[in-house]
Amino acid sequence: MPPTHSVSPITLSCSRCGSVLAPHAGHAECPTCGGLLELRRAPPALHGPALARLFAGRRGALDGADASGVWRFRELLAAADGDVITFPEGNTPLLDGGIAARWAGIPGLRLKHEGLNPTGSFKDRGMTVGITQARLIGARAVACASTGNTAASLAAYAARAGVPALVCIPAHRVALGKLAQALAYGARTLLVRGDFDACLRLVREAAHRLGVYLLNSVNPYRLEGQKTIVFELLEQCAWQAPDWIALPAGNLGNTAAFGMALRDAREANLIDRVPRLLAVQAEGAAPFAESFREGFVSRHRVTPNTVATAINIGDPASYDRGVRSIRDTNGIVTTVSDAEILEAKAAVDAAGIGCEPASAAAVAGVKRLVREGIITAGSRVVGVLTGHVLKDPEALVRYHRDIQPTPALANRPIEIDATVKDFERALDGLGTGGAR
Ligand SMILES: *Cc1c(COP(=O)(O)O)cnc(C)c1O
Ligand SMILES: [Zn+2]
Question: What DSSP element (H or E) covers 145?
Fold first, then answer.
């Protein structure tokens, strides 16, 4: 494919010590101090409606970078976009929440379904940029620590790019669908005896010593791609910013990317006001919420324990960037219990939409803020569903079939004899409310 666009100068520097690095030197973190790296690019030549028209005009493209819901926003991405590895990804729907909206108490709640990306999570948006960069610098191999979705995404994109991949996953805390994908797409899959935070420490050290390219969300190219969730969502709102954007928060890569994207969109005059971010953590893995409650005076670390494996993280790597996103958007960080997460998930699933447990935390968080009177019923709220319903079939079936006492939204399967009489009894049960 010929270069689709002239590459504008990109700078890479350390947000902690200020070191300036060559963008293509292969660093995912500062080699001097270990700090997070920041990418910058010149502002786009177009802005406001003209820029919006350029993005929209690419949407009908049949192939190449324009067909991607990431790369069609390339004027706002600090990334080389010459020869991209794309499925394509993105271009996900913004759905009306149906019964999930009523469950949350916000009739107008809309859900941006990132679970409909090629490997079933928003991680694909960051990975197309990260893998494109890995190939550009000639990485000998790529690696990540993952609760599962980053591994699934990395495995698929690395396979497409023909780059060897290693993924480190907590041995006892990975959802079945995600493990299945990492194996299927051919990544060298390391089941690490430890939690996600231990996996991340390991790959950081390994990347540093062995020259493997690190593709966790500390890698700034990943965040560039993830910004497009917000660009696309705003485009789907006709660039009329909603009042709130709710998302689950684990390692805070997405929280960081959302804040960056809103800053970019505002600077490019695509929106005239900035929505408030609502970052939602599980009670059992809520170090960021703890810091928020104290006005971010200190950073916390916890031993995480939640059913929502994608946010089962005790020491979020993008903490500093996450704080900035919440501050810049007058945002809120809240928590929800595992029971609330599972009920929210059952509501999203029963709406015919479906998502994995971590994603449902966003919807449960919206319900909590409605209950607290912080989000009002007439507000325009978009919840981001981060992962697909089939990622965690075990948690799903346990909820509907096994948990005692029967949860409020459980859809118990009914075993019957192969008789029309039994079938008819089940049919009659539907009219009177049946399983729900
Ligand atoms: C990665 C992931 C998250 C958490 O995102 P962070 O950027 O780590 O905060 C939430 N939900 C799903 C489904 C994920 O895959
Ligand atoms: Zn540094």
Answer: strand 142-145
> 94-120+223-394 adopts what CATH topology?
Rossmann fold (3.40.50)
The number of the ligand 1 atom at minimal distance from the alpha carbon of 226 is 7
Q: Which residue's entry shows tokens 């009908």?
A: 60
Q: Closest Cα to atom 4, ligand 1: which residue?
A: 250
DSSP secondary structure of 49-118: HHHHHHHHHTTT--SSGGGSTTGGGGGG--S--SS---S------EEE-THHHHHHT-TT-EEEEGGGST
The C-alpha atoms of residue 305 and residue 291 are separated, in whole angstroms, by 18
Q: Given a cut of 50, is residue 5 above it in pLDDT?
A: no
Instruction: Give the residue carrying structure tokens 């030197």.
Output: 25
SS3 per-residue string spanning 258-307 = HHHHHHHHHHCCCCCCCCEEEEEEEHHHCHHHHHHHCCCCCCCCCCCCCC
**Alpha carbon of 181 to ligand 1 centroid (Å):** 16
Cα 412 from chain centroid (whole Å): 30
CB-based pocket (< 6 A), ligand 1: 121, 123, 149, 217, 248-255, 310-311, 356, 358-359, 386-387
Q: Ligand 2 center to residue 33 CA distance, Å?
A: 4
Of 22-31, 83-92, 220-229, 239-248, the poorest mean pLDDT is in 22-31
Nearest CA to ligand 1 atom 15: 149
Answer whether 137's CB lies under 8 Å from 111's CB.
no
Ligand 1 nearest atom to the CA of residue 251, by list position? 8
- Mean model confidence pLDDT for the chain: 94
Which pLDDT score is estimated for 240? 98
Cβ atoms 246, 97 nearer than 8 A: no
**Per-domain boundaries in the chain:** 94-120+223-394
End-to-end CA distance of the chain: 53
Q: Which of 345, 339, 380 is nearest to 362 (CA)?
A: 345
Verdict on whether the full-model pTM lies above 0.85: yes
Question: Which pLDDT value is given to residue 436?
Answer: 45
